[in-house]
Design goal:
This protein has 2 domains: about 70 residues, no CATH class; about 70 residues, no CATH class. The chain has about 140 residues and is α/β, with parallel strands linked by helices. The protein is built from 3 helices and 6 strands, in the order βαβαβββαβ. About 25% of the residues lie in helices and about 15% in strands. It is globular. The chain has a two-stranded parallel ribbon. This is Pyroglutamyl-peptidase I. InterPro entries: Peptidase_C15 (IPR000816), Peptidase_C15-like (IPR016125), Peptidase_C15-like_sf (IPR036440), PGPEP1_Glu_AS (IPR033693).
Length: about 140
């Protein structure tokens, strides 16, 4: 599970705080949980994420993000590779506006997010969960 480091007006990134809380709570004993704080740096992400996949061969990866516009917990159906125009923490932005050169335009989750949303909503928690196909960039 990855949370992200500080960026912009987020001196402390709530996504990383949430991931740390998950680590404290833990998961079932048969789940090998690894948590990471991912720097908000295009070039670091391009090296770090593939290295983590190689090291752990995960069955599931969850990237937890933060949004100043979100009013609910938002489950993303896909992640985009194009349209990145903002500078990262190193004041860098890829000229191609792509996270991964030559990568697919969008990576769709194989998880049925609609079902996940319905199941979480049915639990009666004091949390609103919605679905999105427009992950932040």
């Amino acid at each position: 599970v990855a949370g992200f480091g500080p960026f912009g007006e987020h001196a402390v990134n709530a996504s990383w705080i949430a991931v740390q809380e998950l680590e404290k709570l833990g998961l079932r004993g048969d789940v090998d949980l690894h948590v990471y704080e991912v720097p908000v740096e295009y070039q670091t992400v391009q090296r770090l994420i593939p290295a983590l996949w190689k090291k752990h061969s995960p069955q599931l990866v969850v990237h937890v993000g933060v949004s100043g516009m979100a009013t609910t917990v938002t489950l993303e159906k896909c992640g985009h590779n194009v349209g990145y125009k903002g500078l990262d923490n190193c004041r860098f932005c890829p000229g191609s506006q792509c996270c991964v050169e030559g990568g697919p335009e969008c990576i769709d989750s194989i998880i049925d997010m609609d079902t996940v949303c319905k199941r979480v909503s049915a639990l009666g928690l004091d949390v609103t969960v919605t679905i999105s196909k427009d992950a932040g960039r």
